Amino acid sequence: MNKYLAEIGGIHAGDGYLRYNKKYNELDISGSLEEKEYYDKHISFLFQKAFNLKIKTRYFPSRNTYGFTTTNRNVIKNLQNLGFPSGKKSTIVKIPDEILKNKFLVRYFLRGYFDTDGCLTFGKKYGTCSKFKKTRHCYPRLIFTTVSKPLAKDLEKIFERLSFNALKYEYKPKILTENLKIKFFINGANNLKLWLKLIGIGNPTKYSRYLIWKKYGFCPPNTNQQQRLNMLNESLNPHLLYK
Known about the structure:
Elements: H1 3-15, E1 16-20, E2 25-31, H2 36-51, E3 58-60, E4 65-70, H3 73-81, H4 97-100, H5 105-117, E5 118-123, H6 131-135, E6 139-146, H7 149-161, E7 166-171, E8 181-187, H8 189-198, H9 204-216, H10 225-232
Antiparallel strand pairs: 1-2, 2-4, 3-4, 5-6, 6-8, 7-8
Helix pairs in contact: 1-2, 1-5, 9-10
């Protein structure tokens, strides 16, 4: 067990699909096309370090995602030993016990989980505050949403252990066939700075939002990665997006 495998475990909990039986073994992980750099560099690095395996990333046209699949027995066996189930996992996935009880490893699991299934957004402020805060998205929020009660229980425990002031909400979607959703909000600049210190962000598409906020004091919503890169190299003025 090491930090690379712990982070892969978090990535799988967020965006992975694992299948193992007598006939066929496969791990499938994919995400947005914008995350190509994350898969090509960061996730590939993790699998090289954890398993000495060079994964082949690619575009999946049928679902418009980017990622990889592998049938490597060592990979499948390690994830199976950690307790990840075969098949659909969305309502039953949890943090593996071996990682949950380790204060060092659980941070890497959280990084992998946030990089794939978490969200960094910025909101406006209201009330007695400056015009800038009322008109620009300057208030940071780390958001996690899951339909797995075991995972939500583990996250609540870990957030408290690491001193994150997390707000928890439960709500039933309007579509009756959908599962109960559990949402965590970790709000404010201090919480974001603590997250970067203890956990970090390995996904460039999410880290770019932080860099824009750090540079300008706010980060416009509904932007793509290329727009954010343009803002960072100052070829796009983020204030113009509010006009």
